[in-house]
Amino acid sequence: MKLEQAIQSTRFKNEVHKAGLNILYTAWWLKTVMSRELKEFGLTHEQYNVLRILKGKHPELICVKDIACRMIEKNSNVPRIIDRLEIKKLVKRATSEADKRETVISLTQSGIAVLEASTQRINAIFDEVMVINEEEASSINQLLEKVREKES
Amino acid sequence: MKLEQAIQSTRFKNEVHKAGLNILYTAWWLKTVMSRELKEFGLTHEQYNVLRILKGKHPELICVKDIACRMIEKNSNVPRIIDRLEIKKLVKRATSEADKRETVISLTQSGIAVLEASTQRINAIFDEVMVINEEEASSINQLLEKVREKES
DNA sequence: AACAAATACGTGTATATACATGTATTCAAA
DNA sequence: TTTGAATACATGTATATACACGTATTTGTT
């Protein structure tokens, strides 16, 4: 769907302004698609993200701050997301021996199973809805990295 | 900043998968930049969005559902966002005469003033941080609309 | 060794997101 | 005309976002 239809507006200051809105809208759209699939696994978007990060290092242990700095949305309240995952017995908390300030997190067997099933589903839905080829994706990656060049 | 540094990961399934994450990360980055500026005006990202939509129709009245369908994030709880704006006396609520189910919203003088000042700031920060030219922005717009082609 | 600063995490608050439900009003079919 | 469905909005709940602050631990400086 064209952005104009999606947000019922045709008045954009210029193409750059429109690109900003397009990025925000596309991200919302993508999150919505993913969340709908993850719901079947009882996971939210952010809970899934934390599980993925844990998997990346598994069976190595990883502490809360290392999870936080890998999150897509940097202001995520990781301790609270881990609270939910712990209740569902998908992860385990332990105090680090090396540095008692750190809480190290590990995946449970159940966590591994849920992650594997949901990842399969997420990969499938990505292939299904993102109808672009590798070159187009590559262009997007280059352009978005240029957008963020100025850092903040 | 490269996505790899931003989320400390180098393992992407393919360019399409990476593009998905890049879109999500760039949207977060853009929202963060905007929110930081809006904070000086006591506004959140979504409150600003509602004010902009009201301005687009001003001095015409607009009802809650028409605001909702123009929002970038479609699941926004518009009545609640309007609650906050009403407390700050930036908007006014009234029941529609034509259809008493509808609540029509209008900007106050104070709302108009805050919106104008904040819009100036937002436009300036857009120009400042989004260092791409019109052609590059146009490419992004085309590519993102292709990404969303499949609808859902 | 003692103490100040930094770090890591948990917790609290306000707002937003996502979704379900309740209530009043309008519309449409019998 | 009456009644059931649809619509518009408000409200409630769980989770997330954004940010501030408190506590425990570690580090660095004197």
Your description of this structure?
The structure is a homodimer of 152-residue chains. Chain A is mainly α. Chain A has one domain: Orthogonal Bundle (Arc Repressor Mutant, subunit A), CATH 1.10.10.10. Helix content of chain A is 60%, strand content 8%. Chain A has 7 helices and 3 strands; from the N terminus they run αααβααββαα. A 3-stranded antiparallel beta sheet of chain A has the order 1-3-2. The radius of gyration of chain A is 18 Å and the shape is elongated. The mean pLDDT of chain A is 92. At the A-B interface, helix 2, helix 6 and helix 7 of A face helix 2, helix 6 and helix 7 of B. Chain A binds a DNA duplex (30 and 30 nucleotides) through helix 3 and helix 5.
